[in-house]
């Protein structure tokens, strides 16, 4: 928060004049609104990890909007050996619909009417992981996840197209905090103080799984929704060692109800 307050001029100064008013409103909301830093600090002080996770996701979304106003494209060059890969040079939003395999309805955790289908929106971040986000966007547009059943693990909802291309690889791509470009095929280690820009231990975070063949690569098709569980809070730091958070989802009230669902349609790249 101190960094944001001390650097107001430089944060807003990099925004084009025609977008200054919008940027100023986002900056103010980040510092003062209920979904911003003040509330974040309160929940940290109260040691309330459940609410903290939700507000952190909201704050990250506001930061992402500010970054979109500041940066029209990538601020770094991709390594030459990866130029043939699909890439996303910005941010996108994927929207997909899920239905329960047994025909039952969804009940949002925050209340509301039961529904036969739930709509989930996932924000994909090409600024931090252009290759990973680009690969995911292409898979969505190609219909690779249509009809895929979601599988449940202890702290994640996993989606995979088991008929993906054989021999197709995507390099592990992680943007370290404080750096200006991602690392490739290089896992981070929390033990050495390395943290990614995109946090994994946030309810609703989305990441690609690791390749079964090598930790230097991500799975080309398998991704998961992370389900925050305060009972396993001591394990979160360990999870950084083997995880590559590459894009974030919006907080969704239906995530806990996704077990055993299938995805009948996942073709909407809405933004």
TrEMBL record:
SUPFAM superfamilies: Cyclophilin-like. Residues 118-231 form the PPIase cyclophilin-type domain. GO terms for molecular function: peptidyl-prolyl cis-trans isomerase activity. It holds the Pfam family Pro_isomerase. Signal peptide: none annotated. Coiled coil: none annotated. Keywords: Isomerase, Thylakoid. InterPro entries: Cyclophilin-like_dom_sf, Cyclophilin-type_PPIase_dom, CYP37-like, PsbQ-like_dom_sf. PANTHER family: PEPTIDYL-PROLYL CIS-TRANS ISOMERASE CYP37, CHLOROPLASTIC (PTHR47318:SF1). This is Peptidylprolyl cis-tans isomerase/cyclophilin. It comes from Dendrocalamus latiflorus (Sweet giant bamboo). The lineage of its organism: Eukaryota, Viridiplantae, Streptophyta, Embryophyta, Tracheophyta. The gene is CYP.
């Amino acid at each position: 928060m101190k960094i944001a307050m001390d650097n107001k001029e430089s944060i807003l100064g990099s925004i084009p004049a025609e977008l200054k008013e919008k940027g100023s409103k986002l900056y103010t909301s980040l510092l003062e609104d209920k979904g911003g830093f003040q509330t974040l600090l309160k929940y940290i002080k109260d040691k309330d990890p459940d609410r903290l996770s939700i507000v952190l996701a909201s704050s990250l979304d506001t930061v992402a909007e500010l970054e979109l106003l500041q940066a029209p494209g990538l601020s770094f060059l991709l390594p030459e050996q990866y130029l043939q890969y699909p890439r996303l040079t910005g941010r996108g939003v994927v929207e997909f619909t899920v239905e329960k395999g047994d025909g039952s309805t969804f009940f949002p955790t925050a209340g509301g009417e039961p529904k036969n289908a739930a709509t989930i929106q996932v924000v994909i971040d090409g600024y931090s992981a252009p290759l990973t986000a680009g690969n995911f966007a292409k898979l969505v547009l190609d219909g690779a996840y249509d009809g895929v059943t979601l599988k449940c693990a202890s702290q994640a909802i996993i989606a995979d197209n088991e008929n993906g291309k054989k021999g197709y690889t995507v390099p592990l791509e992680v943007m370290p905090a404080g750096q200006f470009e991602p690392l490739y095929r290089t896992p981070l280690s929390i033990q050495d103080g390395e943290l990614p820009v995109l946090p994994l231990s946030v309810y609703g975070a989305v990441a690609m799984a690791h390749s079964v063949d090598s930790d230097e690569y991500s799975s080309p098709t398998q991704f998961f929704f992370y389900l925050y569980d305060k009972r396993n809070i001591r394990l979160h730091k360990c999870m950084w060692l083997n995880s590559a958070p590459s894009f974030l989802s919006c907080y969704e009230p239906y995530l806990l109800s996704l077990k055993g669902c299938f995805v009948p349609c996942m073709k909407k790249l809405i933004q």
